[in-house]
Amino acid sequence: MERGLAANTVESYRRDLRRYCSMLAGRGKTGLGDVTPADVAEFLASLREGDAEHAALAVSSAARALIAVRGLHAFAVSQGLAEVDLAREVPPPSPPRRLPKAITLEEVERLLAAAGPGPDEPGAGGVDPRLLRDRALLEFLYGTGARISEATGLDIDELQLGADPVVRLVGKGSKHRVVPVGSYAVRALQAYLVRARPALAAASRRVSASPAVFLNARGGRLTRQGAWGVLHAAARRAGLAPEGDASPHTLRHSFATHMLDGGADIRVVQELLGHASVTTTQVYTLITVDRLREVYASSHPRALG
Questions:
Q1: Backbone phi, psi, residue 155, to 5°
Q2: Please, how many CA atoms are within 13 Å of residue 104, restricted to the half-sphere of its CB?
Q3: For residues 46 and 154, what is the distance between their CA atoms, to the nearest angstrom?
Q4: Out of 64, 133, 197, 252, which one is annotated catalytic?
Q5: Of 172, 177, 232, 291, which residue is the catalytic one?
Q6: Distance (Å, whole) CA 97 – CA 42
Q7: Among residues 135, 249, 253, 258, which one is catalytic?
Q8: Is the Cα torsion angle 240, 243, 245, 247 positive or negative in sign?
Q9: Active site residue 172
Q10: Which one of the listed residues 284, 291, 293, 300 is annotated catalytic?
Q11: Is 54 a catalytic residue?
């Protein structure tokens, strides 16, 4: 509550701490005052190595679990439940810096075309309503830079498609931001809302209709897993390898990279993405610099050969 964390983050911390408490119990530790730095270090090692019940965790996941443990011990000291914060002596591992995966504009267009018919394509009104939904969903993700969780959590009254189309997104920590919606996404959303969403909503057996913008085949809110399945299937049809060229954040990363390539100010991109710090957004500038080097090396007459 104090940090305003998302429910998914809280659940991840809960899982991590349950595993930590289980390990402590196995070592005969009954209270936080009995814990030593060696116990915390051993827990971190067990996360990386895995065991009969748990697979080995990646560096980033192990770091998150250790941060949860450090938070627990710091809280215990602040509340007088322990005298010393021994977990401070065990730093979390530093994950390798990975550039977010963005795809080219041509690949984005292939992905969108593979998701479903565009609103202006002949016969778009007589297709499976899920295909219009899928096209609208991916156009929305690329047109706004929204996270998949933000798109699936979106309600009808948070979307305005009038003369000045905007959407109010609820991001991490329940932070709200208003983002413009591009013309391609507007047309795809209008086609979906008029021609497809009513048919999906009619399949619901609930007394009250779901307020969600994006519905599943049963008339309920489309889940994050369902939205990821839409992207995965479209990427496969478009010839993009799901393992490398498509992920839940593919269109968000591409949105940011293409905005910066087009000359957008990094602070504007930060606001559009909902990043708390511009440092998070700056990772995209590394991609554009790499792109500049690539274009220079292949285009400048004194760089060739």
A1: -105, 160
A2: 6
A3: 39
A4: 252
A5: 172
A6: 25
A7: 249
A8: positive
A9: yes
A10: 284
A11: no
Closest CA to 107 of 297, 251, 247, 293: 251
Task: Mark whether 195 is an active-site residue.
Answer: no
**Residue in this structure with the two tokens 């599943």, named with its chain if needed:** 216
Q: pLDDT tens string for the chain (305 positions)? A: 777 777 888 898 999 999 999 999 988 988 888 888 999 999 999 988 888 788 888 888 888 899 999 999 999 999 888 888 888 888 888 766 666 778 889 999 999 999 999 887 766 657 899 999 999 999 999 999 999 999 999 999 999 998 899 999 988 877 899 999 999 999 999 999 999 999 999 988 887 889 999 999 999 999 999 999 999 999 999 988 644 557 778 899 999 999 988 889 999 999 999 988 888 888 888 777 777 777 778 777 777 65
Catalytic residue among 147, 197, 253, 258: 147
Residue 300: DSSP 8-state: -
Instruction: Based on the residue annotation, tell me whether 142 is a catalytic residue of this protein.
Output: no
